Fold this sequence. Notes:
Layout: E1 3-7, H1 22-33, E2 39-41, E3 46-53, E4 56-63, H2 70-80, E5 88-94, E6 102-105, H3 114-123, E7 129-134, H4 144-148, H5 154-177, H6 180-187
Parallel strand pairs: 1-4, 1-5, 5-7
Antiparallel strand pairs: 2-3, 3-4, 6-7
Helix pairs in contact: 1-5, 2-3, 5-6
Amino acid sequence: MTKMIVGLGNPGDRYDGTKHNMGFMALDLLAKEYQTDFKMEKTFIAEVAQTFVNGEKVFLVKPQTFMNESGRAVKPLLTYFNIDPEDLSVVFDDMDSPVGRVRLRQKGSSGGHNGIKSILTHVGTEHFNHVKIGIGRPKNGMKVVNHVLTKFDSEDNSEAQDGIFKAVDAIKYYIENNDFTKAMNKFN
């Protein structure tokens, strides 16, 4: 059985460390933990790293399509590697949760998240694992787009980092135990 873990974000230095790139940050840490490196796969418009855990192949993917088009990278990779959507896990930022809170779900709607909306459209099902990392709501009347495309302020940065570490721990637990329900029970 093969698993694919996708972290959502926007490519380019301009977006490094922004709230919308929580998925990229989690995947970078996961790749480091598994001692693997990302390589650009131009055919799939994604950076891809591979590793084996307990004899099972695991693909780590960072789409390079920009957030709103994430599904354009995810669907061809699922098809090419013959991975069932139920073996897909997507890590992304969640504005509806407090900063750093991690929530795992086995399926779900986009909840207004454009990256997830794109994946739902291209993959054609909501039956894939969601790993949400809270970024909180905009403060002081800030527009949503400005909120997600800025870095955390010093007040929230520690909680955000804790959320990334917790998400990585949850993903590793899922991969190593091959059971997303157990991961949900342990980390939600």
